[in-house]
Automatic annotation (TrEMBL):
Name of the protein this chain belongs to: OmpA family protein
Keywords: Cell outer membrane, Membrane
Pfam families per UniProt: Gly-zipper_Omp (PF13488), OmpA (PF00691)
Species for this entry: Aquimarina addita
Species lineage: Bacteria, Pseudomonadati, Bacteroidota, Flavobacteriia, Flavobacteriales
Domain OmpA-like intervals: 102-219
Composition skew (Basic and acidic residues), residue ranges: 202-213
Length: 227
C-alpha cells in the first residue's frame, strides 16, 4: 500500500507542476507559488518518510509533509516579495525582477554603479548604491547572494575576464564590509562573453559594463531561524 501511495503522490506532483507551468507563474503571487511547490515537495518527502517508518504510514507522512512544506514555501515566497519591494524603495533607479522565488538586478552606470576604465575600485557613487543594498540584505538575512561581473569587449579577452572577476569581488567585499554575512555570497565572472547590448556603440558598451545580483531563498536557513 505504501508503494502505491508514493506513486500516486509522484503522479499528482507532476500533474500539479505541469498545471503551474501552463497557467504561468505570473498568475500566482510568490507566496502562493511557494506554498504549492513546498506542499508538493513536502508531501512527497513525507510519504517516503512515512513508508520507511512502517507499512501504512505513507499517507499520514504525506499529509504532515505537505502541511509543513506548504507553510515553509509560503513563508519563503512572502519574504522574497517583501525583500524585492524593499530594494525597489531603497534603490528606485535599479530594475528589480522577480522570477519564481529569485530576485534579479542589474547594476550599471544608469543606476549608480561606476567603474573607471580598466579599474575595479568602487567610487563614492557605487559605494552609496551598494550601501543601500547592504541595508536590505542585512534586514533579510536568510537569503543567498550571487554576484556576477561583466565587461564590454574593449581590451583583451583574458584581461576582461580578470577585470570582471575583480569588479564582482569588489562589490562582494564592500557588502561584507557593511555587515552582510560572508558565507551568503557566491561570485561568478564572465568578462565580455555575455553582452547585454551591442559593443559597437558607447551606449551599448556602457550597458555591458555591469554587475548582476541574484538573491535566492535559503529554505534551510529560514526554517532554522524560525525554530
Amino acid at each position: 500500500m505504501g508503494y502505491t501511495t508514493i506513486l500516486r503522490i509522484k503522479k499528482n506532483a507532476v500533474l500539479l507542476l505541469l498545471f503551474i507551468t501552463f497557467i504561468g507563474c505570473d498568475t500566482l503571487k510568490k507566496a502562493e507559488l511557494g506554498a504549492i511547490v513546498g506542499g508538493v515537495a513536502g508531501a512527497a518527502a513525507g510519504a517516503v518518510i512515512g513508508n520507511n517508518v512502517g507499512d501504512g504510514n505513507s499517507e499520514l507522512g504525506a499529509m504532515i509533509g505537505g502541511a509543513v512544506g506548504a507553510t515553509a514555501g509560503a513563508m519563503i515566497g512572502n519574504r522574497m516579495d517583501q525583500q524585492a519591494k524593499k530594494i525597489e524603495e531603497e534603490i528606485p533607479s535599479v530594475e528589480v525582477e522577480v522570477v519564481e522565488e529569485e530576485i534579479y538586478m542589474v547594476f550599471d552606470q544608469s543606476n549608480g554603479v561606476f567603474f573607471d576604465s580598466g579599474k575595479s575600485v568602487l567610487n563614492d557613487t557605487t559605494k552609496e548604491t551598494m550601501r543601500k543594498l547592504s541595508n536590505v540584505l542585512i534586514e533579510y538575512p536568510t537569503t543567498k547572494i550571487l554576484i556576477a561581473g561583466h565587461t564590454d569587449s574593449q581590451g583583451k579577452e583574458e584581461s576582461n575576464l580578470k577585470l570582471s572577476k575583480e569588479r564582482a569581488e569588489s562589490v562582494r567585499d564592500y557588502l561584507i564590509g557593511q555587515g552582510v554575512e560572508e558565507g551568503r555570497f557566491t561570485v561568478e565572472y564572465y568578462g565580455e562573453s555575455n553582452p547585454k547590448a551591442t559593443n559597437d556603440t558607447p551606449e551599448g558598451r556602457e550597458k555591458n559594463r555591469r554587475v548582476e545580483v541574484k538573491i535566492s531563498p535559503n529554505a534551510v536557513k529560514v526554517q532554522s531561524d524560525d525554530n
